[in-house]
Specification:
The complex is a heterodimer of chains A (586) and B (186).
Chain A: H1 2-20, H2 23-35, H3 46-57, H4 59-73, H5 84-88, H6 92-116, E1 121-123, H7 126-134, H8 155-163, H9 194-214, H10 233-242, H11 252-259, H12 285-298, H13 301-307, H14 314-324, H15 331-346, E2 347-349, H16 350-361, H17 373-384, E3 402-405, E4 415-417, H18 443-456, H19 471-485, H20 487-495, H21 500-509, H22 518-531, H23 535-547, H24 549-553, H25 558-564, H26 573-582
Antiparallel strand pairs in A: 1-2, 3-4
Helix pairs in contact in A: 9-11, 10-13, 12-14, 13-14, 15-17, 15-18, 16-17, 17-18, 19-20, 19-21, 19-23, 21-23, 23-26
Chain B: E1 9-16, E2 18-26, E3 30-37, E4 47-55, E5 69-73, E6 84-92, E7 102-110, H1 122-125, H2 143-162, E8 180-184
Antiparallel strand pairs in B: 1-6, 2-5, 2-7, 3-4, 3-6
The chains are: A mainly alpha (586), B mainly beta (186).
Chain lengths: 586, 186
């Protein structure tokens, strides 16, 4: 069809444009030039010979991974008539809500600035620069006076904004009718039901395979080295392995469900369940580890993403995540990190104090993460200076705050973003980084992984958008699942004034970091990477409520409900998810 | 759902050759399009449906597709889109949840005029048959092969020269200065 072809060429053109600015492009160029020396490269068939060379030497695989990474991150190109705001967020009222929320944050930051008489940014004097450089690896020992600083906002403030989100075109009469949502979120976004949550994983992986197959040699060849993308054999193997749905019911909806998070099915091995001490490792664990090593040897991102849906062995996790996120520590990346470090040393930002305060309040008080305090500073301070993060605002409903150089108000040549990466940290932000410290010990690699995780997933947890993985959809999904499958519990909690979302919101905003035990959290984040979606957070939140339903039915106040759900550190994530998705009686 | 059809009439004085219709949806679930074509005789033309219940919102009760930009092309229509005198858009929204529904920023594109034929000079369209080139000495490569290879290499260098990189430099300050006023609200 004409439409699909033109869509495809548009996608290809977009990806090529993006990859042209990357490291990989210059490396491929260099490799191509160097390969001209090789005897098998003949001038008449230059294009084919170089393509063949790339295939054999593994460069094609790297290119494939880069393209796959772009496909996963970037949304499809939108309609040519659509303005750029439409790509950020298609619904106008949500854009407006995000805009006013941002204005509130800016006002809060500005007032903190004027009250404390601290500049937003200042250049550090040379002495201070030297001092910071010496202390770089132990910034945690510093005890600056942060008592006057307060976090710009906390998750509960954000929840209030979401609760008040209204669509002006929606019939929201004052009287209770079938239109009123019983939960806190009142916007009619489309969320999946348990049956469809199943189809999630299957369709996502199929879409990408089809795209890759269709991308044959392109019509206009600006870069002759890109060629066909053959299907990976090992990937086919997993699909055959993980696809047998043993549980058949007469109910076709339940059938579909098994398909979705199919890889989490009851009859399929999972790390987090089938690697416990009672289960002999020959049954599942050994084979799974062996396949994992094979995937790493192949260096195929798509295969790794499929593999990790069943969980990742601890020993392989760091490399698998790096492969899926397409992070390879090149000298250029280390250099880039060092440059960011220099920027931190040269300029002092108000945001730095916010970061310090946040780390001291959250991660330093956590039994699991306090040892990583210094790493957290090293990552978060550099993150604030990283202008490459600005590119994700093209598909983020949020916009980076703007400011002008002192004395040049209104002059566009002196307009800058503040902070340089456009992200203002909130209370609990450092918890996004903390679990990663268990996997990566080298600061520049830890930094790259965090940055990639942020621009793929975490930004959606604190901006107002209609995206299926956005926090609004997650809240609505949570409430809908609870209402549909635990109606008695939902009604009871609502009656006692303990709306379930008030308790689970903080879990979802932090992606459960700091609430679950670390090994369980990493198993959960394995699935986030595997399914390229945050919906599993909402499903887990509902599953936790389902698990503690008996106790919750007996409470009579919000405080008591919070107490029942205060400690999640003993929970095992995978059994909870399996019970909720596959063993709930409907 | 209202039973009164809200007319959305596009009347042209000139016969339209429709190529594409573009619009921004606003909570319309289904779209039908009917056209009336010019007829040679003075018989009143009939309304013909060229698009029937095209789905804009997969779930009329939820926001999916509610504010999307949509393009409809000639090849998606059920009938021939030549010589159109009137166009009628019929919007349907079965869900009672929405206060209003419409389409915005409606744009209709005609088929572009065909490029006028240019007469080429005789020597371009009927090239003189070239003479047989003199046989070169042994040891020299075939000139046609060399020329094709050189052409390929030239094409490669042209492409490399034409490609720009869009990578950022990474500076956030202006000439080394990052002394800021307060954050701006606009």
């Amino acid at each position: 069809m004409l439409q699909e072809e033109s869509d495809l060429s548009l996608i290809i053109a977009q990806i090529v444009q993006k990859l042209k600015g990357s490291n990989l492009y210059s490396q491929l160029e260099r490799q191509a030039w160097a390969s001209l020396q090789r005897p098998e490269i003949k001038l008449e068939s230059l294009k084919e010979d170089i393509k063949e060379f790339f295939k054999i030497s593994g460069w094609e695989k790297k290119l494939q991974n880069a393209v796959y990474s772009e496909l996963s991150v970037f949304p499809l190109p939108s309609h040519p008539a659509a303005p750029p705001e439409h790509l950020k967020e298609p619904l106008v009222y949500m854009r407006k809500a995000q805009g006013s929320w941002e204005k509130r944050i800016l006002k809060s930051l500005n007032s903190m600035c004027t009250e404390l008489s601290i500049p937003l940014a200042r250049k550090r004097p040379v002495g201070e620069q030297k001092e910071l450089l010496n202390k770089w690896n132990e910034m945690g020992t510093d005890e600056p006076d942060l008592s006057l600083f307060r976090p710009v906002y906390a998750p509960k403030d954000f929840l209030e904004v979401l609760i008040n989100l209204r669509n002006p075109n929606y019939e929201n009469g004052d009287s209770l009718s079938f239109r009123t949502h019983l939960g806190l979120i009142q916007v009619p976004l489309k969320v999946k039901d348990i049956p469809e949550l199943g189809a999630l994983g299957r369709s996502a992986s199929n879409k990408v395979i089809n795209k890759k197959q269709n991308m044959g040699p392109r019509k206009q060849d600006p870069n002759q080295r890109e060629g066909e993308f053959p299907r990976n054999d090992s990937k086919e193997k997993f699909q055959d392995k993980g696809c047998t749905t043993g549980l058949k019911h007469n109910n076709p909806r339940l059938e579909q469900e098994k398909e979705c998070f199919v890889e989490l099915g009851l009859n399929i091995g999972q790390l987090g369940i089938d690697d416990s001490t009672q289960v002999p490792p020959e049954l599942f664990e050994n084979e799974h580890v062996r396949i994992g090593q094979k995937v790493l040897a192949e260096q195929d991102s798509a295969a790794a993403q499929q593999y990790i849906r069943q969980g990742s062995p601890t020993a392989l996790r760091a490399e698998l995540w790096a492969l899926i996120l397409n992070i390879s520590s090149q000298p250029e990346d280390v250099l880039y990190y060092e440059q960011l470090k220099t920027n931190v040393i040269q300029h002092d930002l108000l945001v730095d104090s916010l970061i310090y305060k946040d780390v001291k309040l959250t991660a330093s008080n956590d039994d699991y993460y306090f040892v990583f305090e210094d790493y957290l500073y090293q990552v978060l301070l550099c993150f604030s200076r990283d202008t490459s993060v600005l590119s994700h605002f093209a598909f983020n409903s949020a916009s980076p705050p703007k400011s002008y150089i002192r004395g040049k108000l209104g002059l566009e040549e002196y307009a800058v973003f503040y902070p340089p990466n456009g992200v203002i940290p909130f209370h609990g932000f450092s918890m996004y980084v903390a679990p990663l410290c268990f996997l990566y010990h080298e600061p520049s690699k830890l930094y790259q992984i965090f940055r990639e995780m942020y621009v793929r997933f975490f930004f959606r947890l604190h901006s107002i958008s209609s995206h299926p993985s956005g926090i609004v959809s997650l809240c609505l999904l949570f409430e809908t699942l609870l209402q549909t499958y635990l109606p008695q519990l939902f009604y009871h909690l609502r009656e006692i004034g303990a709306q379930p979302l008030r308790i689970s919101f903080k879990w979802m905003v932090r992606a459960f970091s700091g609430y679950l035990a670390t090994d369980q959290l990493l198993l959960l984040w394995d699935r986030i990477l595997g399914y390229n979606s945050l919906e599993i957070l909402a499903v887990l939140a509902a599953a936790v409520f389902a698990f503690r339903a008996v106790n919750l039915m007996e409470v009579t106040s919000l405080a008591a409900a919070e107490a029942v759900l205060a400690d999640l550190s003993t929970l095992k994530v995978m059994p909870l998810l399996q019970i909720f998705l596959f063993a709930t009686v409907t | 759902m209202s039973r009164v059809l809200v007319p959305c009439h596009v009347k042209g004085s000139v016969a339209l050759q429709l190529q594409e219709i573009t619009f921004k949806n606003y909570y319309t679930a289904f779209l039908s399009i009917r056209v009336r074509q010019y007829t040679s005789a003075h018989t009143p033309a009939k309304w013909v449906t060229c698009l029937r219940d095209y789905c804009l919102m997969p779930d009329p009760h939820s926001e999916e597709g509610a504010q999307e930009y949509v393009s409809l092309f000639k090849h998606q229509m059920l009938c021939d889109m030549a010589r159109i005198s009137e166009l009628r858009l019929i919007l349907r929204q079965p869900s009672p949840l929405w206060l209003s529904f419409t389409v915005e920023e409606l744009q209709i594109y005609q088929q572009g005029p065909k490029s006028p034929s240019v007469t080429f000079p005789k020597w371009l369209s009927h090239p003189v048959p070239c003479e047989q080139p003199a046989l070169l000495r042994e040891g020299l490569p075939d000139p046609s092969r060399v020329s094709s290879e050189v052409q390929q290499m030239w094409a490669l260098t042209e492409m490399i020269r034409a490609s720009h990189t869009s990578a950022r430099i990474g500076r956030f300050d202006v000439d080394g200065c990052y002394d800021l006023n307060l954050l701006s609200y606009t």
